[in-house]
Input
Amino acid sequence: MITLIYAALAIALLLSILGLFRKTWSHKFDESMPDSHSTPSMGNRHWLDLSERIFDPSDARWLAEELAFPKLAKSLSLERRKLAIHWLETLQASFDEVVRTPELNPSEVPAANSARSWQMLWLTMRFKFLVSYALVMVRLFGPYHRLIPSFSWLPFSRESEPRLRQAALANNRSLH
Amino acid sequence: MHILGMTIGFSAFLLEGLLILRGARSRVFRQLPLFRSYIVYCFCTVLGLYLIYWLDRKEYASAYWLCYLVSILVEFTVLAEISDQIFQPFPAIRNLGRALTVLISVALGLLYILPPILGSAGRDRLLLDFALRASVTKAIILAALFYMARHYDCQVGKNVRGLMLGFSIYVATSVAIWASAEAFGSALFAHLLWFMEPLAFLLCLLVWTVSLWHFAPMPSLNAISAARGGDSESVAVELTRFNSELSKFLHK
Output
């Protein structure tokens, strides 16, 4: 049985490299065509504002609580979930385009370049992790759920929050 | 059998010499410094082993197995070279390959390779386990690198593609051979499988020689990529912007 697993691993390795070559080969033909479906950039304010509307629960609440249309509110939140997933996937695609930007003139200072490369890798991995987490949360709980869990139920956070706020206020006063 | 082994060994030696000569003439070895060190190491090892064979045949077997064990570890430099080259043009993920290689090597080294070495029954079994598990680790690293290269649509040049293809053939064959030896016993290895691994390495060297004969630049830096290319500073600014926007969004 274990030999079969190893044999499968060996075959999968060879197939994956052949797959990579096939993709590289097909890219040679694709490259001649300009990309017509470009993803929106971070500078596009309208596209960023769209997320405010998609993730805003006030419409669904208004339908359910004030107009008493719970079914309509539910179908709205279901549609919004699809939109939220699509928005997050587009954000990811837009980020991937930035990641795929090649460097035309590499820096001459290798040490500084290496430190910056590690920093950029950290930013890339952080974004990938957070966006994947957001996608899982939206898929599981919908677009109106808090993405970062609230710790207000903890006695420590309930006690320490006003104290921290007071300390910050006192600090501000002393500065003025 | 003895002649077959000698022929395979001598052919590999010749190909390694040819690769070193050709690599020094063309610009290929300047782009692949780790690979260059690996090939020079292989060439020197074979030369040293031939010398030991002619001078003191009794010591040859132990010297061979010592060199073999060291070469299992040295082969990780080829993986490091491949991982560096795949993501080289992209500043945001330039170190991704290196990070993956180191992380997988350390994790599998501690959890998969080390335990059987510490609790092994005999020397033969230990050697077999070590060779098999090291090859599986290399295969997993290669598979992870291929997956990430596909995920980010990285287009590798002919030189690096050849490097990957050759090494994949060698690693895949090694996994199959060592797994068969473990499953069917050392008798099969002694009669049939012993020359398969050197033969796979010879094939790997042949692929490397053909693909590295001429220097080929990375295809991602062609006209269209150049049009959307930039400096690492602007990419870093964009990455920071994406991260801060996402953080703001998550904290809402």
In short: Residues 123-151 of chain B form the longest helix (29 residues). Residues 2-214 of chain B form one domain.
